[in-house]
Design goal:
The structure is a homotetramer. Chain A is mainly α. The first copy, chain A, has a domain at 62-203: Tetracycline Repressor, domain 2 (Orthogonal Bundle), CATH 1.10.357.10. Helices cover 74% and strands 0% of the residues of chain A. Chain A contains 10 helices and no strands. In chain A, helix 1 (7-23) crosses helix 4 (51-76), helix 5 (82-99) packs parallel to helix 8 and helix 5 runs antiparallel to helix 10 (181-203). The longest helix of chain A has 26 residues, at 51-76. Chain A starts with 6 loop residues before the first helix and ends in a 6-residue tail after the last helix. Chain B binds a DNA duplex through residues 8, 29-31, 39-46, 50-52.
Chain lengths: 209, 209, 209, 209
DNA sequence: AATGAATGAGCGTTCATTCAT
DNA sequence: CATGAATGAACGCTCATTCAT
């Protein structure tokens, strides 16, 4: 059920995503979205069929974009050494979660409304697992990694830790040096990335020389 | 503003928590809760003043219980060696999150409704950070730990990873051997706990003999 | 359907009257009344059967008292000259309306709820009409009054003017010299009384010598 | 905050006014109004924002119309003799109160809901007082009136008496010859008008030749 | 292709009243 | 005799959606 969206539709989806990530699906009324998007209240039903279908389209749209993005990324690290690849994967996941935190925010919160779509996200996660598995095995084979942790556990740690930081801003900011609103996000991202690098490479038994 | 609750009120809170964790605050109507609790629609206003106040009471009630529970737990590990203490802390946090996943589910999702109460959760997290800090320092001092990672990062990894597993059941269950509905939860909890033990001890540079 | 009331019941009726006169029948909840009377919410149904029946009892109670009161008053002027009697009647009606403005306030506002009871008020008004008729005829017979206006019109003017003043406080107070909250009511009562005396005696063609 | 209303809105306001005058603001539910107006329950909120705001608009609308109406009337009597002017004013006020008795019914009963709007009614009453004052003074100057009663007292008598008659139908109808429902109202209006003419001209010491 | 008016269902809450004690 | 817990109906209002244009 792929669909091409007009500019106007994408505009609506952007605003819907932001509001829903902030206030939840039920907490966000069609009127809220339309008012912020400067369109008529009837437009969401008109364009997408219903509020719920709009959610599906929004989800599809983002997953599609994300997959394309990941595809490109995967290409860029194809040639590197395992330790570099692992580092880049961590960096990529963390930055993507921070960048599209709106999306990832509502994915876990609001996916109950689009139960059948979860599969697409699942496929996407498995893509990561597969990639991590490759890298780990290659690293172990080449001797730079000592241990063989489960790739799904590595992914769990990376995504889980990052989302926790994003969602518990007022906890984590206690430990981030620069609390300036502008720079906080960057500092937080950096801190969680460093933590994950340390963590993951420790599990891998990475012997830096 | 502590409050004693009757059995009936606790019954309502239990059901409310479950539904809200599943379907969100706005997604759960007073009628849903009352219908499942076999009580009159007016009772929530009658007992708690309003739906919103019920949320506050629910939150208070759980945080209070959780703090008391943690207090007891902290006593039981007071005497042990750092490595044992760390192991027990991880085990404790993971098991608590699994046990009260309803609560932790709505805490991160629905806290916007009880903004002023967030501080209590913050205090609670800081309790953990403090405890972790003690254990890490003691372990480093006694030589069983080699490195000194930040306690807030350790906590982030533990809670983040566990919550991710809880909330992405149909991802994680792909990697859990026994998919029997009854045993799955236990297996999943065991798997994430093992992962975290490995992970945390690796970061600490724990030298097992 | 006469009824004897206990002190507690009278206490409730007093409070109910005040609140209903202020905020209307529907605007006053049973809870409001019970809360102000420091009694249980169930008491009004318990004592009076229902909120509506309470209204009936309240109405009966006040009309009864008022009739008794008027009876006494009628005795005191029995012996006087017509012009004195007329003066006293005006003074009496005005002062009673001011004194029991709570009651008269809700009588005209809330009588829609006790349609069948209007007869009692009607009887009461007719008592006044009869008395006024007597006085007018006596005065005409004795030559102190020149004209024979209809007694129901005299009553209409007296009650209508007084109630208008009571209910349009912020209009009439513009023309009352002393606006001090304490003395205003007395001044207003005095002013409307003087107006009515002038008015009624003018209609009667009273020739003061 | 003046507002133009559509025909549909005016239709709703008419029905709302009638019901509220009869049963009070709290006694009249939004459902009552909508049911009688054959519209959806949501329409009152949709058109006016809320039930309470509807009251304000209704009030504004009627006061505005009434002021315009009075303005026109004032023009028509500009040229006449004082005694003719006085007669016309009485006739006008009485007929207006009878015509718009719904409005005047709820104005005194329900103005607690639109506290801040009372001033507009006050202004309106003062317009009458001013006009009466002019007429009285002119009459006294030209010698047709002997006395100088206070204009606010004249207004009080006129409005008070008329409203009393309107609100105590089953009292006054005892004295109105033709009790036929159709003609009663006209007869009652006539009777109270005659009474007021007599009354007011007597107070003015009008010397008819 | 797009709108604004209008709808019916459902929301959280309050109501007068009843019930068990 | 009196209470406080509990009820079902109704409240004003907002919702996502549909309809007529």
């Amino acid at each position: 059920m792929r669909k091409k969206f007009t500019e106007k539709q994408i505009h609506i989806l952007d605003i819907a995503e932001e509001l829903i990530a902030k206030k939840g699906y039920e907490g966000t009324s069609v009127r809220d979205i339309c008012s912020k998007a400067n369109i008529n209240v009837a437009m969401i039903s008109y364009y997408f069929g219903s509020k719920e279908k709009m959610m599906s389209y929004l989800y599809q749209y983002r997953v599609l974009k994300t997959r394309e993005n990941f595809s490109e990324f995967a290409d860029t690290i194809k040639e590197g050494k395992p330790e570099m690849q692992m580092k880049e994967i961590i960096k990529y996941i963390v930055s993507q979660l921070f960048k599209y935190n709106y999306f990832h925010g509502f994915v876990t919160q609001e996916l109950r409304h689009t139960e059948n779509l979860k599969d697409e996200l699942l496929d996407f996660y498995q893509l990561f697992v597969k990639k991590l598995d490759e890298v780990i095995k290659k690293g172990v084979a080449s001797g730079v990694f000592t241990f063989t942790p489960k790739p799904e556990d590595i992914l769990t740690t990376i995504i889980g830790s990052t989302l926790f930081v994003i969602r518990n801003k007022n906890f984590y900011e206690l430990y981030v040096p620069n609390k300036n609103e502008e720079t906080y996000v960057k500092e937080a991202e950096k801190k969680v990335r460093m933590n994950l690098l340390l963590s993951v490479f420790a599990i891998l038994g990475y012997a830096a020389d």
